[in-house]
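Complex record, two chains
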Amino acid sequence: MTKPLFKVSTPVEAIKVLKDHLDIQKIIQKNREIVNIKDSLHRVLAEEIISPCNLPGFNRSTMDGYAIRAEDSFGASESLPSYLKIIGEIKMGSKSEFKINPGEAVKISTGAMLPEGANAVIMLEYTVLIDDTTVELRRSVAPWENIVREDEDLKAGEVLLKEGYRLRPQDIGILAGIGKINIKVFKRPRVAIISTGNEIIPAQDEPQIGEIRDINLYTLGACVEEADGIPIYKGIIKDEVDLLEQEIRKTIKKDKVEVVIVSGGSSMGTRDITLEVLNKLGKPGVLIHGVSVRPGKPTIIAVANDKPIFGLPGHPVSSMIIFNLFVRPLISWLQGGDYNYNSDNPKEVKAELTCNVVSDSGREDYVRVFMYKEKGKFYAEPVLGKSGLISTMVRASGLIKIGLNIEGIEKGSKVMVKLFN
Amino acid sequence: MTKPLFKVSTPVEAIKVLKDHLDIQKIIQKNREIVNIKDSLHRVLAEEIISPCNLPGFNRSTMDGYAIRAEDSFGASESLPSYLKIIGEIKMGSKSEFKINPGEAVKISTGAMLPEGANAVIMLEYTVLIDDTTVELRRSVAPWENIVREDEDLKAGEVLLKEGYRLRPQDIGILAGIGKINIKVFKRPRVAIISTGNEIIPAQDEPQIGEIRDINLYTLGACVEEADGIPIYKGIIKDEVDLLEQEIRKTIKKDKVEVVIVSGGSSMGTRDITLEVLNKLGKPGVLIHGVSVRPGKPTIIAVANDKPIFGLPGHPVSSMIIFNLFVRPLISWLQGGDYNYNSDNPKEVKAELTCNVVSDSGREDYVRVFMYKEKGKFYAEPVLGKSGLISTMVRASGLIKIGLNIEGIEKGSKVMVKLFN
């Protein structure tokens, strides 16, 4: 176990400290449920799937034509065709009753079962029907041409999908193919979202001068949903230690949440309240206080009795960026995955930076950019504005990261834009 | 209106013909509904949003410190500080009662309202509290430094989001910020999925030899879900004209679907049945019969009384690829969007091809590839196998497209991989 750090931490340090203080395997052990595969898109497998059977399970034609012995076609050409005797036609979806002997052929459709004795299918296009019982072959076919072998898609006993695997449409399809209709998946983690700040009012209310509607409740709720978690909207708590402590204890107990996010409190007084509460809830308490990320420095990460609790900055831009760096990976770990925002985010597009961007060394900078295409080329244009301005995120298409020890990026440089969904 | 084509069409032609025969604007006119913004992630706006107010609505401090007149700090430094009289502290979330005169300062927290007369905030770090009523300034601040102006995030009357816009977390946040809790969105299109083929059995059943479980129902259902549509699972219909016709008429009427997908029928006989039925259901009938795409050539696209109906190939790989090319964009159009799989799919990653891939000119080829990273570089390795093998899609990370008039791509070339979700 690493000792809790009370200096500003790099994102990598923060992730490590959080992981060191959570027994993920123990937490997720009981977080499994059975779902029908129709409800399993983007869910994460909590069991290993071994194929119980071959797929397709029988040798299957991939073409309309004639099932034959490949040997009977060898040497056949338009100028020197071969002739075979048609002994019948295979019915779709049933066991072939035929057995093919040398010199014989059976009419077959795409998807039908290959008859005994046959080892190839010749396409209709390369044949001529001479009479009811005779077919002319104008080409040769190789053994097993135009056939899917009985275990070519899947072999019985093969490990098909592993625990921790996130299901895509084709994965759900192959589960249907082996008759696995109900599967064990990890429960989607429940994440409570609490806003703090005496100036914050519910979004449906009319603000008096000096008040501001709650934005973070909604952005963070939607971020939880995008991360495949379940947002539990808790609303606004006034800046008082007792109220905040009670609310967090209540949501952990009654809403059975796995994660708590407290956002807000960018001013010193309120930050101190969050810090005090996050240290009162259980062991080990606050692990991280401040990260070397801009925007997003005033971030608090705590663990209390195996429950991770985040104190995110109040500025809407900062809270979203910090969510992606720390909470989103955590939601993935809690489903048996190992997602890392910076290395596993595949939605990156290369673009040319349209102006110089400066950054301080010793700090990761996330710069909002608007991306556009001109003459087939992508450009990334920084969206300027303070991190309190949600409109800058609305105007932006994604973020570019400027690493810890880089002091800026010059206009014209190629950058990787991490796209928003 | 273009005349229906009964030759093999390029994907671009097929999209054009489909669009020419559907009055999308008329169809979507009535497909609007009101939802709470908490339920609006990735939904598409069916109204224009104009900001009814300024955001934040008052001049707001972005720092903890003192609200002052910037002029009173000019020239201040550590060696030659200025001194101001503290006349009070602003309460968070309420209208400032103070009016600042020359030589005066008011204590202020991040997020609080700037008092009248002040035009800047000096950070706490650059001040020293001398006594209860005197603060020393050790730096100068510029006018409006550390302040978000009342309309800096949003101006009243500004068009914020347009009709047809797909909502991300930050967009939902800004709607909360202006108090717009309920919004008009396009309904998610309902898409019926029907499988055909006498060899196909329900996935929960045990196949007899020659039979095969229904895979496409599940892959296509999940694809509809990924495209933000609502899948209506109809199951398997035997290969008979009357049965298929009845089923499609029933699902259009009773399930109120906007789109019908019939998959299967890769053999000549069953293809003919789908073709016959799709021509019987209403005007104009079948528009496209065959597309120059591999895999996926035997594709049928029809419109009957303003309902688009697709006859997708039975092979699981082909049906998914054709779905992405034609059905997925259509689901986007039916929500007021204008998505195009080939130009609007941002989830592309550049990779190096690990072996030669050949393709025929005059046909778009979609090659399944497995992507891996080695020494920080992405490689795309073609996944070989027939289009009837769903396992090839499970092994693949995405697709590379080989354009109509390209005859192949050499090993070592840079390719763009369209990632699966």
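Note: The CA atoms of residues 76 and 139 of chain A lie 5 Å apart.
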